[in-house]
Structure formats: C-alpha cells, structure tokens
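To the wet lab folks,

You asked to see what we're planning to order before we commit. Fair enough. Below is the target structure as tokens, and below that is the sequence we designed to fit it. If anything looks off to you, flag it before the synthesis order goes out.
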C-alpha cells in the first residue's frame, strides 16, 4: 500500500493528512470514495468508539447498565450513519450547484463573446452603410447638378435667341421708321416749296399787272396832256388841266402801289404760314419716328452649380468596439463538496461527543 510521507520521511498521520491543501492526493479518501465503503465505515467507526467507551465502563457498572449503554451505542451508530448520509447528499448537491454555476458562467462567456462579435460586425456594417450612403448621395448630387447645369444652359440659349430676334426686329423697325421720317420730311419740303413758288408766282403776276396799270395810267396822263395842248389851252386853264391830269395819274399810281404793298404783305404771310406748316409736319413726322433701339443686353448666364464637399466617417478603431468580454470566475466543485463534508463531520463529532457524555452519565 502506498503511504504519504512528510518532509522527515515518516508516514503522515491523519492530522497531517487533513492539513494538506485542497486537491492534494489523499489515497485513503480516494480508495473509500471509489469502493463505496465510506458510507458504511463511518457508522462502524462511530459504533467502535462508543463500544470502547462501553467496554471500559462495563467492568465498573452492572449488567443492566451495560444493557442501557449498548442500546445508546446502537442509537448513536444509527444517528451517525444518518448524519453522514445527509452530509454526503448535501455535498453532492453543493458540487452539482457549483458545476451548474460553472456551466452558466461558460455559457454566459460564450454569449457575451458572440454578442461582442455581433456588435462589432454591426458597427462595421453601419459605418459601411453610412459610407455607401454618402457615395450614393454624391452620385445623385452629381447627376442632379449636371441636369440643372444643362437646363440652365438650354434656358440661356433660348433667352439669347429671343434677345437676338428682338434686337433684329428693333433695328428693322428703326430703319423703316427712319425711312418713313425721311420720306415725310422730303414730301413736306416739296409741298412747302411748291406752295411758296405758287405764292411767289402770284406776287410776280400782281407786280406785272401793277406795272402794266402804271404804264397805262402814265399813257393816259400823257394823252390827256396832249389833248389839252392840242386844244390850244394856255394860261391858267392849261395849268389847271395839267394839274388835274397829274392828280389823277398820281392817285391811280398810289392805288397801284397800295395794292402791291398789300399783295406783298399777303404773300409774305402765306409764305410764313407755309413754313410753319412744314415745320409742324416735320415735327409730327419726327415724333412718329422710332428712337434708336441701341443694343439689348445679353441674358445673364447662370453659374455652374458648385460641387459640394462630403466627409466620410472616420475609420473604426479598437476603442470603438469596447472591451472584450472577460471570462467569469469558476467555482471549485470539489471545494464545495469538502466544505459541506467538513461541516457535517464537525456536526457528527459534536453529536457523538454529546451521546458519549449522556451514556457515561448513566453508567
């Protein structure tokens, strides 16, 4: 049989064996546990202890007292067996509870590890989704910007065509209005010139008539004076006849001169009126003339839409994922069993001592 030795080379006793650390090799406990005799030997040991006490007491006491002690010994042995059996079940239950706690800790660690990995992948997926969304927004913005720029260019070209057509129309209208104005002023000039020429001809004709009448009056005066001379009138009568003739001639000449002055004044008034009419007609034509349209401004060309700037989310780092799960503390099932067994052993020892004291008290 293999025996445990201490540092002095002497086999270890029970006290030294019990002081070994938890988990150390105890051959007798292992052999008892494997054979199943531990549950049966402990009551026998307790009964043997009580038997020794009874054997030493029977020598002193009577037969009746020995019978009483034997009954007490039997009761103590049964009580010790029951306590030991209950402590063994309690130790098994404590060990099972420790095993269950360890399994729960293991499952919790696996769950926390899987959850940490899933959260990590979820964070990476959310960042990638944000990056994809930004790229999609940039592409859509580029398409919309290109569409708006093309629409603005089309609108600018259309407005430019309208401007050029309006400019050409205004210039054509101005040329037509200027041509009408020049034609109107030319016609006014010709009309006024013709009217003035007509009035001047009338004045010249009146002057010619007046000159003829003067010549006629002068001839008549000369003829009257010749008649007076032909009649041989002399002296005072001749002078009076000549005076009368010259007075008539002067009167007629005065009338002719007044007529010419009046005719000239009327002609001058008509000419001035013709000039005024021409000026008025020219002003009316000028008022109807279209102003120079000049050059219409070109339509404003829309500026290109600026390119927006997009910022991508920063790259993920280890601190974004948080700390990894920590493996929880594991319970020692053997230690739990030994703790329960130790408490049961102390309880049984106390019961045996109490029972021994009671038996000794009755001897």
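Sequence we intend to order:
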């Amino acid at each position: 049989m293999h025996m445990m030795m201490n540092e002095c080379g002497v086999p270890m006793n029970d006290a030294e064996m019990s002081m070994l650390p938890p988990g150390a090799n105890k051959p007798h406990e292992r052999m008892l546990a494997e054979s199943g005799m531990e549950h049966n030997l402990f009551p026998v040991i307790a009964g043997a202890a009580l038997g020794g006490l009874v054997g030493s007491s029977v020598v002193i006491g009577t037969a009746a007292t020995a019978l009483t002690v034997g009954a007490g010994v039997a009761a103590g042995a049964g009580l010790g067996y029951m306590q030991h059996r209950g402590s063994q079940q309690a130790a098994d239950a404590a060990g099972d509870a420790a095993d269950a706690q360890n399994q729960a800790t293991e499952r919790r660690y696996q769950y926390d590890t899987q959850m940490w990995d899933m959260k990590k992948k979820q964070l990476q997926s959310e960042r990638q989704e944000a990056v994809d969304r930004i790229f999609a927004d940039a592409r859509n913005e580029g398409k919309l910007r290109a569409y708006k720029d093309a629409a603005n260019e089309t609108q600018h070209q259309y407005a430019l065509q309208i401007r050029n057509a309006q400019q050409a129309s205004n210039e054509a209208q101005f040329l037509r209005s200027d041509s009408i104005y020049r034609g109107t002023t030319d016609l006014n000039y010709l009309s006024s010139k013709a009217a003035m020429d007509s009035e001047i001809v009338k004045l010249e004709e009146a002057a010619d008539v007046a000159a003829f009448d003067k010549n006629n009056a002068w001839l008549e005066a000369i003829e009257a004076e010749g008649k007076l001379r032909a009649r041989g009138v002399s002296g005072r009568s001749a002078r009076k006849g000549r005076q009368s003739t010259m007075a008539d001639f002067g009167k007629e000449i005065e009338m002719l001169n007044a007529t010419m002055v009046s005719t000239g004044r009327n002609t001058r008034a008509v000419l001035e009126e013709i000039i005024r009419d021409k000026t008025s007609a020219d002003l009316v034509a000028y008022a109807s003339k279209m102003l120079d349209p000049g050059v219409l401004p070109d339509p404003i060309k829309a500026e290109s839409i600026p390119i927006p700037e997009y910022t991508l989310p920063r790259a993920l780092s280890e601190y974004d994922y948080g700390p990894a799960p920590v493996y929880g503390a594991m319970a020692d099932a053997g230690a739990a069993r030994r703790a329960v067994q130790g408490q049961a052993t102390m309880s049984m020892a106390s019961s045996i001592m109490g029972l021994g004291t009671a038996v000794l008290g009755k001897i």
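Structural context that might help your review: The chain is about 80% helix and 0% strand. Residues 21-25, 27-44, 46-67 have pLDDT under 50 and may be disordered.

Thanks,
Computational group
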